[in-house]
Design brief:
Mean pLDDT: 89
Order of helices and strands: EHHEEHEE
Largest sheet: 3 strands, parallel
Radius of gyration: 13 Å
Number of domains: 1
Structural class: alpha/beta
Strand content: 15-25%
Oligomer: single chain
Distance between the termini: 38 Å
Helix content: 25-40%
Length: 81
């Protein structure tokens, strides 16, 4: 079990996430906030983590503040440029 803060708010990179994926078959990730472009560093780390888990065929169980389909919040038009 890991917190979002441990894995995505602290300074981590893809090597760290690959090590987690290689050592655990199932990851419980708790405290995932709504992610937005305001904190791109958190968003980037979260995506790197999920990619590493997916690549290594690992299970991830996410405890989030909102439903999973609402986890990404972007202002309308913010990705049009």
């Amino acid at each position: 079990m890991f917190s979002f803060k441990e894995l995505c708010e602290d300074n981590r990179g893809s090597t760290d996430y690959m090590a987690v994926a290689k050592n655990f078959k199932t990851i419980f990730l708790r405290g995932v906030p709504v992610l937005s472009s305001e904190r791109r560093d958190f968003l980037r780390r979260f995506i790197l983590l999920i990619d590493a888990l997916y690549y290594n065929h690992r299970n991830v169980i996410i405890e989030a503040e909102v439903e999973i389909d609402q986890i990404f919040k972007f202002e309308s038009g913010s990705h049009d440029k």
